[in-house]
Every structure is written in C-alpha cells, then in structure tokens.
Amino acid sequence: MKRNSEQQTVFVVEDDEAMRDSIRWLLESENIETRMYASAGDFLKGCDFDLHGCLLLDVRMPEMSGMELLEVLRSKGFQLPVIMITGHGDVPMAVRAIKLGAFNFIQKPFASQELLDQIQLAFAKDRESRQKAGLAEQRRAYLASLTDRQMQVMELVAAGDSSKAIAMKLGISPKTVDIHRATIMRKLGVKSVAEIVQLRLSLH
Amino acid sequence: MTLFGSEAQPSTVRNISPSLPLLGYIVLAILVIVSTAVAFQRITRSIEQEKLRELGEITDTKVGQITAWRNALRWRGEALLHDSMLATEFGRWLEKGGAGNGSTHRIQELLSELRYVGGYKTNALLMDPHGAVRASINGNNTLELEEVQHALSVLTTRTVALSDIHRNQGQEHAISIDLIVPLLTRSHGMDQAVGVLVLQIDPYDFLYPLIQSWPMHSASAETLLVRRDGNEVLFLNDLRFKKDAALALHFPADAPDLPAAMALRGERSTIRAIDYRGVPVMSEMREIPGSSWFLVSKIDHKELFAPFEQLKIWITATGLTFLLFGAGIFWFWNKQIQTRHNLLKAQRDAAVEREMLVKHFESLSRLASDIIIVADETGQIVEANERAVENYGYAREELLRMNVSDLRLANEDPAILRKQIEVLNRQGELHYEAVDRRKDGTIFFVEVSARVIEVQGVRYLQGIVRDITVRKRAQEALRKSEALLSSSQRMARIGSWELDLSNDRLLWSEENYRIFEADPARFGGNYEAFINAVHPEDRAKVEEAYFSAVKNRTSYEIEHRLLLPNQRVKYLREWCETEYDADGKPVRSIGTTQDVTEQQLAKQRIQRLNNFYAAVSKADEAIVRTEDRDTLLDAICRIAVKYGQFKLAWIGLADEPSRQLRIVASSGEAKDYLESIQAAIDADLPEGIGPAYIAFRENREIVCNDFFSTLHVFPWQENARKFGLYASASCPFTLDGNVIGALTLYAGEAKYFDQELSRLLGDLANDISLALANFDREKQRRQAEEMLRKSAREIEDLYNNAPCGYHSVNEYGIIIQINDTELHWLGYSRDEVLGKMNIANLYHLKDKQKFLTKVTQFDRNWFVRDSEIELIRKDGSLLPVIQKATAICDDAGNFVATRTTLYDNTERKLVENLREEMEQIGRLNVAAEMASGMAHELSQPLTACSNYLDGCLRRMKEDNWDQEQIRKVTQLAYKQSERAGKIINHLKGLVRKNDRERVLTDVNALVGETLLFLENEINNQEISVHLDLSDLPLVMVSRVEIGQIILNLCKNAIEAMRDTAQRELRVATRIDENGQVLVVVTDTGTGISAVESEHLFSPFHTSKQEGLGLGLSICRSFVEKHGGRIWVNQHRETGAEFCFSLPTGIQYEEKFRTANSVRG
To answer: 3-class SS at B906?
Structure first.
C-alpha cells in the first residue's frame, strides 16, 4: 500500500503528440510519474487494473473516443479517478462524462496549474478510496475472527440491544454477554458500541 | 322502595357449589397417594432385588465352601485308601485273629493318628470285611446299621465314600458325617479288601459353624442345610431360632411356601416365602453338587425393610397430615361460603318479606283513607266503608241498596258505566276518573281504582274511590293561569324558565320554546340541552356568565345568539336570579328570555351603514388624493376592509386576452380565499358563473347574501366556509360606458347587504368609475404630451444626428443653424460657428466663387441642387460633399435663410451598405460556427504551448536546470504557438469581409468542409450523416456565401432533430433537369407546416426561440444573387427537405448580367 501510494502515476490518453509531450513535460517538472498512450486502444492493451494514480483522458480522439473508453473502463470495473479533457463548449459531453463516473473534467485550453490541481485532487481521491478498501478488508478479517456466538452478540449489540436483552435472547447470562462484548471490542479494535455499529454498516 | 335502598340486591345471592373444588382436591389427593404408592413399590422392588442378589452371592459362596470341604474330605479318604500301612497292619492283625497286644497297640496308634482328619475332630473306626468293628479311637465300637451297610458297600466299590449327616447313638456328638474308606492290600497284583475305615467327622467342628456363620451383622439371616427324606424335607443343621433341630426337624416336602421345600423342588430363589417359624422371609436356595444336600439362605422381610418401613411410616404420616390439613381447610372454606350464602339468603328473604309487608300496610292505609265500595258484577253495591258513607251522604243501608250507577252524574250516559264495568270484568282491574253525585245533589270529581276480587268463589267489583275535586280545581286554575302567562309571554316575546339545580331539570315556558324554536317533545329539559341551543361561539360566554352569577350571587344578565338552521341567527337577552337554601347552596334559577333580534339587527344595520359611509367617504378622499389607478384600487380595497369592516375586498379588471377578471387589488384577512377563485368572464368556464362575473357581464350589482344557498358560488362554498365568508356583493364599474371591472366585498355574516348598503356600494363603484375615467383622461393627456416631447426630441435628434449635414445661413451667409453631424464632419464646435462664421469661409477656393455668384441671387426661388463641392475642415483637410439647398422665405416672400443639406460623398452608398451589413450578420454566424469548430484545433496547440512553458518555468525555479533541455522545449512551445497562429490565419481568411470573389468551386468539397464545422453538434446529438454526392461541374460562386447556405440549412436540420428519436441528416447533390447544380438537405426532424412554409424565407420569421429569423432570408438573398433558387419540399411526412439550385457556366453569367442590367 505504502509503496504504491508513493508511486501514483498519471496515465494520459491523448492523440495529439504535442499535447502528450507537453503534459509529460509539465508533470515531470512536478515530479509526477506519467505514462502516455496515443490512443484508447493502446491504453486498453497496456492497462493493468491494479494501477494507482489517475487517468487523464482526451474526449476527442479518432477511433475510440474518450467517452467510449470511459464506458468500457467503467464496465470493466476500473477504479482510478478519471479526469476528462474536453474541448471548449463541450458541456453536454462533460455532463455525460460525470454521469459515467468521471472524477472531473477540464476544458481545453487549460492553465497548467488547473491541471496540476485536478491531478492532486484525483490522487487524494484515489488514496482515500484505496484506504477505504483496505480498511474494509481489515475489518472483514477482524469480523471473520469472531466465533459464531460472538458474531451473534455483535449483531445484537449493533442492533442496539442491552446486555440484559441480549442475554435473554441468547439464553445466556448478562455477565457472559459482557465478556463476549469485551472480547468483540478487543478483536475488532474498537472502543465504543457506536464504532461497532459503524463497522457493521460499513460492511453491508 | 326507599325502605330497601340500603339492602343488597336479593337477586345477587348466589350459592357457590363446593363440589368442584372438592372434586379437585380429591383428585389431587388420589394423585399424591397413587404416586407415593408407586414410589414405595419401586423402592421395595429395588431393595428386594438388591438383597436377593446379595443373598444369592452369600449362598453361592457357602455352597462353594461346603463343596470344597467335602472334596477335601474325599481327597483325604483317597489318600487313606492307598495307605497300605494301615491296611497291611489291619490285615495282618485280622489274620492273627485280632489279638496280640503288640499288633492291637499298633492298630490303635495308627488310628489315633487319624484323630484329626484334615484338622477336624474325628472318631476313626476299623471294621472288618464282615461288618464287625474291630477297633476305634474312642473305644466306642458301635455303629449304626445304616453305617455298617454303607461301609460294607464300599468294599465292593473300593472307592472312598462320604456318608450323609446322621445321628450316632451313645456318642459325645450324636451327629456326624462318615468318611468311609475301604482298606485295600495289594498281594499278587490284586487288591484285596481287608476292612473298612470309618472316619466319623463331627459337623459341629466345622460344617455347622460354616453354615451358621453370616458374613455381616444380621438379626435374622441364616443358612440351612436340608435334604429330602422321603416325602419330607429334613433339616440337617441346628437352626438359629430353633435349638437341636439338626436331623430332628421335618416338614412336608410339598409345603408350598417353605424355602427348604422349594429348594427340593429345584427353585433357586424366592422373595415371598414362609420359613419354619412361619415368618415371611426372602430366600436363595442351592443344591450342593455331589450330595443330596440343599443349602437355603434366608433373611426376614422384617429385617430387610426395617429402615424403609420407618421411612414409609414417616412419609405416610406426613402425607396423611397434609391431606387432613387440606381437607380441613376445604371444609372450613366451604363452611364460610355456606354461612355467607345463608346469611345473604336470609337477608333477601327478609327483604322480600318486608316489602310484602310494606305493600300490605300501604294498601291498608290507602284503604283506610279512601272510599271503598264493593259491588257485585252488575254494579249492585254490597259493601261500602265509612268514608263512602261520609262522602256520598247516604246511610250505609241506603248505599247497600243502590247501584253504582246511582252515584254517577244523573245526566251521564249510562253506556259509559256499562262499558267500564265490562272492561273491569274482562281485565280484572280498571282505573278511571268520573264525576259522582252526593245525596244532596252536589257533584265531585273522583278517581276510581277498581278491581275484581274473589271472595269464596264469588266475583265482586271493588272500587276505591278518591275525591279529587280539589286537585281538579287546582289543575284547572293552573291551566288557566299558565295559559294566561303563556299568552302574555307570547305577546311580550318574553319566555321564562326555571332550572332546578338539585336535579338539573330545566323547565321552559311555551314562549321560551317558541323563542328557541325548539320542539318541547324533543327538548332535553336540562342545562346541557339549553347550552347546546346557544350559538357555538357564545357558549363559553354564557356558561361563564351564568356560573359566575350563581357563584357570586349576582343576577345573571346576558345577551347571546342562537344559531338556527340555515345559519340564521337570533339575539336573545336573558336574565335570571338564583335561589339558595339555608346552607347557601344554589337550589333553583328562575329567569326570562327575550328575543331582541330585531333591535340587534337594527343596531347592526346602523353600524354597517355607518361603517360603509365611513368607507365611502374615505374612498372619496383617496380618489381625490390618488393619481395612479393601481394605487387607488388598492387603497379602496384597504379602506373597504378597514372602515367598512369587510372580511375581504377585491377589485378585478377585465383582462381581454384571457377573458378573465384579473385581480388587481385585494385586501382583508381572508385574502388567501382569492387563490381559489377565478372570476373568469367566460361563461363557458365554471368559474364564469361567479357573482363578480355576473356583475361584470351584466353591468349590475350582484348581492349574494347567503353563500350556502346560492348556486352562483357553489364552486367556492367549501373555501368560503373555511375563511368564514357568508355574503358578498359585487358591483361593476365602467370606463367610457364600458364595464371594465368589478368591486367585490365579502362579509362574515349572511344577509349582510341590505338595500341601503347595496345603494352605497353602487355609489362607491360610480366614484371609482369616475376616478378611472379621470385617470384615463390624464393618461391620454400625458401620453400626448410625451409623444409631442418625444417627436420633438426625435426631430431634433434626426436633425442633429442624421447621416447628413444640415445648416442654414442668413442673407449675409452667416451660419445661423447647424447640426451635430456637420459640426462633427468639420471638426468645429457649435460656438465657433453659430452666428460667427460665414459659410463662404468653409468652401474650398474653387467652390467659393461659385457660391458667391449664387448667393447674391438669393430670392424666393433660390435653390441649389446636387452640387458636388468640397468643404474645408477645421484641421484643413477636405470633405467632399453633395450639397442641396433651398431658400426659406417669410410670408412676404423675403429671403430669410437657406436650408442646406450636405451629403458625405464618401458614404454615398448607404443603402447598399445596409444590405451588405445584413449579409455580414450571416457571415458572422458562419464565423461563429467556424470559431467553435476551430476552438478544439486551437486549444490543442495553445494548451500544449502553455504546458511546455509552465513546465519550463517550474524547472527554472530550481537552481540546476538544464539549459539545453529548456531551450529545446521552448522551441517546441514556439512551434505550437506558430501552429495556433496558422489556425487563426486560416480562420481569418474564412471570415474576411471582402471575401466574396467568385471562384470556380466544387460544391461537393464545400459540403464536406461545411459539415466539418458542425462536427461538434453532430457528435453531441448523435446524428447520423448520409452524403449522397454526384459528380458536379465546377460552379463560379462565392465560397463563403454558398458555404453559409449549406451551413444554415444543415444547422436548421440539426436543430429540428433535437428532440426526435430518429436523427438522420442527408445531404445530396446532383445536376437537375435544367442542368443546374442541385443541393438537397433532408432531415428527420419536426418538419414544417404548410403555413410556416409560406413565410419561411421572409426576414425575421423564425421558429426558434433564440433565432433572429435572418438565416433563410440571407440564404435566399445569396442564392438569388447567384441566379439560383431556394425552396422547401412539403411532401415529406417526417422532417423537412430544403433544396437550392445554382446555375452553371454560361447560363449563370447571362442571368447575372441580366439581373444587374435590370437593376442598373
């Protein structure tokens, strides 16, 4: 995780060579890792779905357009934030892109700072979604470590039942429930019932 | 009944049957007993099993021991069998004739060694083969016959034998077991019996103790050894409870319960048996192998169950105690219930009895105080009491001779009495009132209770007669006085009432019922019924007033309303006083009710009129003060609500296009009601029947005094109720004799508007009409003034800013008037010129002379026409103009001034320029399209350039930037900016203003180029484009203009397809039948109606919201300029088809020339 997050890369799909070259030049001046693709086909060929960073996609390209590529990527479960580069006045196109799940769009001609800002935002988004995914996995692992009984108790705790009510429902003593509860909290690494509830919600 | 008031209701006495709880208790007890018994049985069985097992084990052990003992004896015998020493010695001794001390002694010695065979005390005897005992240890040589026979039998079998237990006579222990051993000597290889050794073993020594011993402490357990003896069972050992029983005790072998007998029968164990003592025992029996003996172990039941018996006793005792206790409780409880039941029953019986007694006594007392007459079935009097005698004045004897009819009024119809007697006979009893006659002829009213009584089987009629004259009279008087009161109340419209507070009885006089308009039959007759009759809004007030009056002992006086059906309201004034008892408790309120509706209504009416007058006067003030129509109407609504006390006032003005009364002003708390009404003046709408509408339409006042019974307002009744509106009046007002609007007022009460109010409303509407007419006149005047001012301004503006120069000079040539345009042209300010400068000074030298010669000839007919001259500007430059001038003369025909017009020669083609500008607009459209199409192209290099340069700047912030690299990249950036420049140049070329030169053009290529501009729209709207291009000759056209036609048509097509499902743009080119180039643009859009198509190519006709309507008209102008034609095909079902044709080659040239020459 750590190594990858340091190595976030901007993937650029752009048919115009000058644009491609200049974007690389600009991003490298900020020490941002870049990878260039001259067409949507190139990207699909070379693309690996475990990428980190963001995708910079020109809408207007011969053969497969940026919008089509975006649709293909979304259907394949591509997770990176996508910044669309649209031409001037392509607002309906931009709206369509956002609806398709693009992270943002940027209109040509754009100020280089604007591009850099968008890229930083997209990086942050990427990191955040990766962290979320990691956290969810960790919690799932924590949950898996619970015994069946502890799972039952946790469900009831999350549902807001008191120790007494849980004891009644499960036919065990409230003291046992309290012990289970403590174990659950320790195993899940949480400190309050609220966190248990939150955790439950985050996984369903 | 009051006698029984405190008693319990007799009918509630109910006997609770004890059987059910008793049954339950018994069942419970049985359950307890049964379960206990079962438990006991189980325990018993388990103890028995356990003990039996134990007994069996002990028995088996003993059998083993006995068998072992017997075997040991046998082995001992076997050993002696072959002990040749005793046999040899005995043989020799016998051969010697049994004599010789030495030998005898030897024998004795040998025998003595056998004194303890195997450790058991033994008597040994030696017997010769003839059965004579020759020697013994204790010298007793006698043997029982049986023993001898047994011993002799051994001689033949030559085996060791063990005898049974038997009795010996004359010995210390009379009982013994014999081990019989034949004595054999071996000679010549043959065994020869020389005698028999009999070893008499004392069972007391070992066997009996063995049998009698018991491995644990037991009070009754013992073991017996028995054998069969004929038909009897013989006990072989001494018994624990019977001394000297060994070989002495016999029992029949078939004794059924005896364990010993059972053993003989082969049984092994028994739980229930009776032993030799007759005591119940449990027993285990075993046969001892190799013998005729049976071993019987037994133990007394008593001992076995001793501890358990104790427990059983305790449990039983406890159980019984509980059962008894329960039974006791039940008995006690049942007794209590019975006692209570009996008590209640006794009370009830007593009560019934008492009631009967009381009835009896009551009837007795009645009898005593009333006249009682007994007659037979025909009415003949047979008995009369003292009271009868007193009352009728006849002696008793006289009465007894009379018939009942004789007591009735003389002129009464005898049929009445007959009928009464008949009914009485039939029904058994009868009550009636009659008038009776005394002996002295006076009459009195009676009430008769007659019944049939039976005395010893004879039927009599018994009449109890009461003199009710006094009551009758009182009733009559009361009736009369009540009638009087009632009529007087009716006349005074005052009702009276009386409220008995102790039992909440409310009595109303007739007039009171009339005032309340209540039906006496249905009126509740209590306080609540009264308060329900009061107007709901006044109830709280009335209750508060009445109860505080009662509490404070003041008189109650109040005015309140009644709400009668149909929202009718009545006003009442009530007054009452309350009586109190000695404790100060209010007893009764007596009061009067007066109907004061008329006074109230009159008062209200005056109030309403006053209010309305105030409103009208305030409205008039407003009319005088206000200068604006809307403000006035607003003020009138406010005034009507504020001073006229209306709930709502609004003014509607006719709104011609929508045929509705538009609400222009409104005021009042119920303003929201207006949201629901639409006083349309279109009678077709349901709203068109509203009162305001009718007032407006028919130009008359409409008063709607009760909303809820008027059809006009039906659609709004619901809402009106919500806002508390009950009546309305609408009044139209006019302008120039035409109705233009209506004022509508709403009141919160029905029947609000009377004639007077309506008249005032009419006055108010009149005033409004006048005010509106005034406003209108004022407005027209102001408009006229404004127009005048405006035209003056326009004339001045025209004069000053017209695209030509104006000036006037006087007879001396001095400029006396000049317009701004000319000043602007010349560069002078007005002050420098006006009244100071001679016009001649402005002329160019060459023109000056011409002017001077002319100006001297100024006269009436002086004029200059279209003289082309040059003027000198202030800065010295020349201005070529065309001058026209005329003379202005006074009435006398004397020259006053010139009126000179100058045209700027450089802008002579003004009219053509206008047209050119129109074309320019079209061209700019093309430019905009192209610009948008180019934007993408342009943004590319610009963005790249900016990225390059920003990258450079960012790197150059660092210290060690690579110069060479930066230089290279800057070069790249430079290239991109050049690329952008090229694109812009290209764009410029396209929109260059004077780019209208006609060149040989390929229309197909032009179509392709034009569509490129629309690429964006085509992609965005997902339009499919079909090109159907035929080979075409080159045509001589303006690329820009023809390009724009194509662009316009395609753009229209794309826009027409914005909302259609199918989006297909088709562009076709071909040569038509006239040899002209034909371009057809087809779409699948919304199409064009026939009406539309007529104006399609006129300027400013547009179907688009943002369009100018110039596109197609410009197209037509362009096409026609090229000698072509543009039209639309209407025959298509969906979409539109636009075509234009362009002439080719010579045809075109000719046409063009013709067109030009015609124009020129």
So the answer is: helix
